[in-house]
Amino acid sequence: MEAIALEATELSLWLKLREAGDPMARDALIVKYAPWARNVARGIYVRVYLLRDAWEDCAQNALIGLMESIDRFQPDRGVSFQLYARHRVRGAVFNGLRLIKEDLAKAARRTDDDVRDRTDSLLDSGNDSIDPLESFVSMTVGLGLGYLLESNSVPDSAEASDAYSFLEREQLSRAVVTALDQLPEREHLILVMHYFHHAPFVQIADELKVTKGRVSQLHRQGLNRLRESLGKQMNENL
Predict the structure, then answer these.
(1) For the chain, which residues make up each domain, given as ranges?
(2) Architecture of domain 104-238
(3) Where are the alpha helices (DSSP H) in the chain?
(4) CA–centroid distance for 95 within its chain
(5) Does domain 1-98 have CATH number 3.40.190.10?
(6) Which residues neighbour 16 within 8 Å (Cβ) at sequence distance 6 or greater?
(7) Nearest 5°: CA angle at 106, between 145 and 26?
(8) For residue 66, what are the contacts with CB-CB under 8 A and spacing of at least 6?
(9) N or C: which end of the chain has fewer CB atoms below 10 A?
(10) How far apart are CA 119 and CA 140, in angstroms?
(11) Please, what is the angle between helix 100-123 and helix 55-72, to 10°?
């Protein structure tokens, strides 16, 4: 059996979650292990790559399996978290694939709902004094940033026609990741859950025990900060 080897910081998060039910500790663990869960989903997805529409389901089901594992994991049992969680995460992805045909129609509706949620979030600034044109521009840029995040989340989504376009995409991807990592924890978590694991606002609200309106607000704030951070990076590189 693989021995557990937790860093002091991570062990502290598990203790806070298990002993005090600390929701911030749970958020931090989700952020820590979400990239790993996506890699597990990617390993399955590339084996069924002909199902091009399956990636969103794979990523979202991997996140569900991850959160279920976090809620059930006992750090004092002598087993590493990834060893414990891998079976559940993989099982969640495979279960989703078995239902892929039934879920196609639902996925189409979910995409429409996601776009509607994002648009409503970006338009609802809470400031009536903002110029309507500026509000529209901000919304358009925000939707573009969302598309950029989403395109970076899909494995092997880029088909670079030459070395220059590949290099440009790699540079842009690094800039997005850098900017994303600089966001406050909750905003970071919501953008990762929504764009990288394709979780709708209503599911995120349920998982984080907040209102959908609060998720919408933090989504807008996160994209605004991301926009500012990318702008600064571009100016520094000029």
Answers:
(1) 1-98, 104-238
(2) Orthogonal Bundle (1.10)
(3) 8-20, 23-45, 55-72, 81-98, 100-123, 132-153, 163-181, 185-191, 201-208, 212-237
(4) 20
(5) no
(6) 22, 24, 25
(7) 60
(8) 30, 33, 34, 36, 37, 85, 89
(9) C
(10) 9
(11) 80
User: How buried is residue 80: exposed, middle or buried, by Cβ count under 10 Å (0-12/13-18/19+)?
Assistant: middle
Give long-range contacts, CB 8 A cutoff, 24+ apart: 86-90.
86/40, 89/37, 89/40, 89/41, 89/62, 89/65, 90/40, 90/44, 90/65
Q: Which residue has the higher pLDDT, 62 or 156?
A: 62
The pTM of the whole model exceeds 0.85: no
CA 211 – CA 204 distance, rounded (Å): 9
**Which pair of structure tokens corresponds to residue 234?**
């571009």
Q: Which two tokens stand for residue 137?
A: 């521009």
In this predicted structure, what is the pLDDT of residue 157? 45
Nearest in space to 141 (alpha carbons), one of 56, 230, 79: 230
Q: What percent of the chain has pLDDT over 90?
A: 30
Alpha-carbon distance of 123 to 117, in angstroms, equals 10
Same fold, 1-98 and 104-238: no
